Amino acid sequence: MKGLFRRELPFHIMVWPGLLAVLIFSYVPMAGVVIAFQKFIPAKGVFDSQWIGFDNFRFLFQQPDFTQILRNTLVIAIAKIVAGLIASIGFALLLNELGKAFFKRTIQTLVYLPHFLSWIILGGVLIDILSPSEGIVSWALGFLGINSPFFLGSSSWFPFTLVLSDVWKEFGFGAIVYLAALTSIDPTHYEAAVIDGANRWRQTWHVTLPGIAPIVVLMVTLSLGNVLNAGFDQVFILLSPSVMDTGDIIDTWVYRMGLVNAQYGLATAVGLFKSVISSILIITSFVMASKFANYRVF
Amino acid sequence: MTNIFAKNRMITFASLALSISLVFVSACSNGNNSTSGNGGALKASSSADSPSSSPASVEANPFEKYEPAIEITTVRSTSARFKFLDGESLDNNAWTRAYENELGIKVKNVWTTDEAQYQNKMNVTIASGDLPDLMFVSPAQFQQLLESDQIEDLTTAYDQYASPFLRKIMEQDANGLMKKAATVDGKMMGITGFGSIEQGTPVIWLRTDWLEQADLPEPTSFDDILNIAEAFKKNHSGAYGIGLNKDLFGGLATIEGIANAYHAYPKIWLKDDSGKLVYGSVQPEMKQTLATLQDMYKRGLIDKEFGVKDGNKIAEDIMNNKIGLIYANFWHPLWPLQEAMNMNSADGMTWKPYPVLSADDQVASPSTTIPVTGYYVIKKGYKHPEAAIKLANLQLKNAWSDEAQAELYNTDKDQTPFYLYPTISMEPPSKNLEAGIAVTEAYQAKDFSKLNEEQKGYYDNVLAYLDNNDIKSFGNALIFGPGGSEMEVLKKYVEENRMKIGEFYGAPVPTQQMKQATLDKLELETFTKIIVGESPIDEFDSFVEKWHKLGGDEITNEINEWNAAQ
Amino acid sequence: MTRLSFGRKFFLTFDYILLSILAFLCLLPLVNVLAISFSSSTAATANIVKFWPVDFNLKSYTYALSKPEFSDAYWVTIKRVLIGTPINVILTMLVAYPLSKDDRLFRWRKYYSWVFIFTMLFNGGLIPWYMTIKTLGLIDTFWALVLPGAVPVFSVILLLNFFRGIPKEIEEAALIDGCTHWRILWRIFLPLSAPAIATITLFALVGHWNSWFDGLILMNKTEHYPLQSYLQTLVISFDLKIMNVKEAELLSQINNRTLKASQIFLAALPIMLTYPFLQKYFMKGIVMGSVKG
């Protein structure tokens, strides 16, 4: 037993500095989730604020528009996750097929640029280019004989616009992980496949995809943690009264609540609700992966 | 990829979700002015010699210097607007030197943060229990600090030390509402931060060059406004009849002024015939307003895409000759009209302000609120509570009294904004209106000897624009000069006693804290859908019903309880 | 090299064209920001600048660079990146290495893993977070920007998965040769997972460069703001409802789009330039067998 511990000692020592950091900066403040069960008032602090049990949660669930907001959040977030994964992976694979290193590097640098512009900036640009009367998109659609919809002002198009613009902004940055994974595939696998007479499609199918599969599974699992995060900044900037019924999400709702008065208890309760949902999904997928594929994600 | 920044996003979200913007303070500090009327604005004058009305115990020298000097800690919001002289800073400028040399008070800023995060940082400061000696808090924080007994009673300090000028502002201007707003159970618990009542009113801004082209007379009724809008749309390709922003209320291109034409007063609390405070947006007059707006939208007088346009987009449309008619505040000549003039004055662009106009034979009343922005309070147990009063005395004296040195304490010729740096910052609520009247009189008499330094600056602008056609001076000239918004519009509102002043100015009542956000969303969503014709006008009736059911009734009761306690 | 089939040629042509269009679409907004930054303020406010400056001038750049706040903030951010990124990367490697082992080799692995993962899912909110950092005496110190986020758990999990892809045989051989785990991490895992290390370095770098909220809340002096916190104070949209004459006079100065655009561009430039340098690690594959322990 002692021998075992000694053998594992270097592992422990490696983990401890990082462990210390998360214990101090993540676990200590985590005690603060108790304010989810309080009518928290800053001037009274955690100890003297009134305890109200699950009232904050009940308040959230009893909102007249709660189902609508929850549905919007789920639809937008899940669509973003799925579309984002497909776009990033697809882009990484397409880029990987190209031979010219200079071209590859240029493309890769360019697609990563929009990540660095905030939604505050891009919001104004989007309103211009998507304007049905004078936007460039409407002009292009008109060229094809299509009448431009009001992308930002019509309830049915708004979620679609959110998802597409988010994917456009982030796919290049999201592809970095997959590009790293592609690079990590041992080239000898490809050589072996070529000797076996596999063409490019078969190489992609039998070498490339299995090679990045663990990272894809990991990213899918982790992104489950975001099914209730539909992207506050973007929605907040683009939301307008005419698209509230399909565009209002949990985060914008909490923001509006906070405008009237600092609702720390409520905001913490919403955070806790999201955490619990995320945890359930992540743990489920972790268990499924290890049970059915015998693969440990973490 | 949404997941990469899971952690970052949580923080961003927390920040945004919890950031309690100052917007609310102004949006909800409606007022209580039980005598109604004009807030005594015109009676105000910035002289410091009006008689003291206080039954003061022992009156002491309002500018008495501390020997040796004392220190007072405070916290500050900063702004991108800040600009300092070389070597100066928030901790070292004309104001800090005046405090130290004239009063013996060393002001120490424990923290400074950008104005957008001030409320958030103030909340974490309050929660951590580490209060500075002096702080500016929102009405809601004021309420919390009162309940937890963390702030000092300033009654005695005020009675002893308040200068006549401070007393006049607190007790006489705006019907004494500033003192009343800070007084709880007979004790004065802070110094009220206050804006101007008349400046919250809507003003019609009209492109007069377009009006002439259309060969139409100046508008005298709301029907005229509709005709003008029709003409503007017809005569100018790409133009809309009237500008409207997506938030409908507050800011540039809003509907308050249009509602006022039908004697509707959305967003504010006013007494009904029985003397009970009721919410303006759910009164029947509002239905008529919306019917008109729906009709205007149908006739193409309103931009089909207004639903996504904020103030900045409206500004673009104005600059690009798409809007020649808006309802907005008195100060808009400075922005965006100034920029629009820079760009288009060569093509003949001109603007003129008009008071809101009525749709029937009754005069239209512009709606506004009592603008309590917050309170300066002293931490309980601080040894020199009177220091707050002295800081206010000195600031009023140096910035706004007859002895004021504007070059040193307000703005110098390079536009260095010294007026942003005082630790306690107050101004006479009707300062601008007085300036507008004085400047116009001086211009007509060609005699500026009676103007103070600030007013002289506006006078120079008026002269430059009207006599020398200097476009860069357009902004101030159209506010303070003859034909400007102060003289032509606000003065009339006040003199003719026309304003409808919202009468609730307290901290949000408990049900507001829980339900106001939902009700606001319902209101904005319903109004927008009615305007664009997605909902029929009768949807307004079911909105009113829902509003009452979803918390409106409780809020009405609580606000009336609040009113009874005043 | 075998001759390309027609299908392959067709596919490659399509691929080149598609990716070029995508890259072009991604470049446009940045070109727009750049064009605005070189335009006159009036043209920018009227929103008539598209992809080419109107009334070309450099005023906004000379103004931005002359503002001491801007250079101060730039310096804070550079310090933050130079100190924060190595801390992130080293801690990430140290944690990821043991956690990438088999449960048999490191029995505590699974407990440690969940301790870390849990922090990705739950947090206590703003006030407890602030109080903790305050209790440690870090408020208004440089370390408040670096220490609270010292372990980027997402990167740990990512790296852990890359480490697992390294063939066990290499590690076993090294152990038999008498190598310690420290040496294995340093001499074998590190070079073999260069693309992954480059990825997490980039994430750490971008994370430090972009974060603004911690600066605004944890710093007591505006001079201590990092760049993005400072920019946030400029970009935030104006509240047109609370405006007096003096403020309105300054609004046109502050609401100056050209100035914002130039500062946004100057702030984004360094981070955009670092990418091509890190990129080479994503470009060439690594031959596992060739590295000797």
Automatic annotation (TrEMBL), chain A:
Annotated ranges, domain ABC transmembrane type-1: 70-285
Gene3D superfamilies xref list: MetI-like (1.10.3720.10)
InterPro entries noted in UniProt: MetI-like, MetI-like_sf, UgpAE/MalFG_permease
Membrane topology designation: Multi-pass membrane protein
Location of this chain's protein in the cell: Cell membrane
Pfam families: BPD_transp_1 (PF00528)
Keyword Nucleus: no
Chain segments annotated as transmembrane: 12-37, 74-98, 110-130, 136-160, 167-185, 205-228, 267-289
Main location: membrane
Record has Cell inner membrane as a keyword: no
Keyword annotations from UniProtKB, A to Z: Cell membrane, Membrane, Transmembrane, Transmembrane helix, Transport
Domain of life: Bacteria
CC per GO annotation: plasma membrane
GO biological process: transmembrane transport
PANTHER family for this protein: BLL4140 PROTEIN
Family, per entry: Belongs to the binding-protein-dependent transport system permease family.
Name of the protein in question: Protein lplB
Source organism per UniProt: Paenibacillus agaridevorans
UniProtKB/TrEMBL annotation, chain C:
Coiled-coil ranges per UniProt: none
Subcellular location: Cell membrane
Name of one Pfam family that matches: BPD_transp_1
Keywords noted in UniProt: Cell membrane, Membrane, Transmembrane, Transmembrane helix, Transport
InterPro entries assigned: MetI-like, MetI-like_sf
PROSITE patterns linked to this entry: ABC_TM1
Chief location: membrane
Superkingdom of the organism of origin: Bacteria
Residues annotated as transmembrane: 81-99, 111-130, 142-163, 184-209, 261-278
Topology versus the membrane: Multi-pass membrane protein
Keyword Magnesium attributed: no
Domain ABC transmembrane type-1: 74-277
A GO biological-process term: transmembrane transport
Cellular component annotations (GO), alphabetically ordered: plasma membrane
Family: Belongs to the binding-protein-dependent transport system permease family.
Descriptive protein name: ABC transporter permease
